Amino acid sequence: MSIRLAIIGYGNLGRGVELAVRKCKDIELTAVFTRRAPELVSLATPGVSVYPIDAAQTMSDCIDVAVICGGSATDLPVQTPHFARLFNVVDSFDTHAKINDHFANVNAAATESGKIGIISVGWDPGLFSLNRLLSDSLLPGGNTYTFWGEGVSQGHSDAIRRVKGVKSGVQYTIPVKAALKKVRDGENPVLSTRERHIRRCYVVASEGADNDAIASEIKNMPNYFADYDTEVHFITEDEFRQNHSAMPHGGFVIHSGKTGAEDENAQLIEYSLRLGSNPEFTAGVLVAYARAAYRMNKSGDFGCKTVFDVPPGLLSPLEATELRRRFL
Question: Which sign does the torsion angle of CA 176, 182, 185, 187 carry?
């Protein structure tokens, strides 16, 4: 029997989840829920119905796990606890400073319903989080550095688009090259948030909007832009469509430490990603963790989880003997 998966929210990430499910033999797309008029949503998968988001309340018996594809700024803090009362859920909440608060809210809802809620799934937070944990455990006392980009951040771009007067917007995260070189050279520099990255925003303003007010609100947005050197560039819709439609991304986690009786041996761990499509890669991670959420709940587990709590073998559709044969 296939795992019955629903998508809640059908933007770039939701479309990526649909494409990822099509590659899975053990998962089937059962439903898509949207805040838009369902008749305006065209899916790539034949035979799957699109429902208004409120219809999810009546379909808890038809869905094994739901992937929630809203934005971290305002959607997921509300949606994930809400839907965790109905289904096993997975989200990509990426506001690092608020993860513990989000965890507590989802845990209360999922514990009450007896469901699993896996939050902050993606590549950062998510895969990069795992690499930071492993690196620090293997080389305790070392230094861990995370660099994002150059690429489009979905969460930060979503935050831009919610600013009053913004018609379209995209944000590129760019590592500071000098800082990255110091880390790779083993200098173990102390770097402030501002010294690690530049945030470069391209905005199409609505007609009559106050560009200065838009730029000020973006640059001073807590948890997103206030701690960075942030550039805001206003462009036309044509330029936006021509030059900023793709969604590449990537980044690095680098951990440097020392071993030996006198710390004489320098050790460096580096994990990197180079992504042609940020939402499609993130979607692949979400679907793998959706499989794990279903399996964990079937075994009697419930409550909120993060990537730290999920055994890696549960991400794969393969049996344990095959995992050992292929990958161990």
Answer: negative
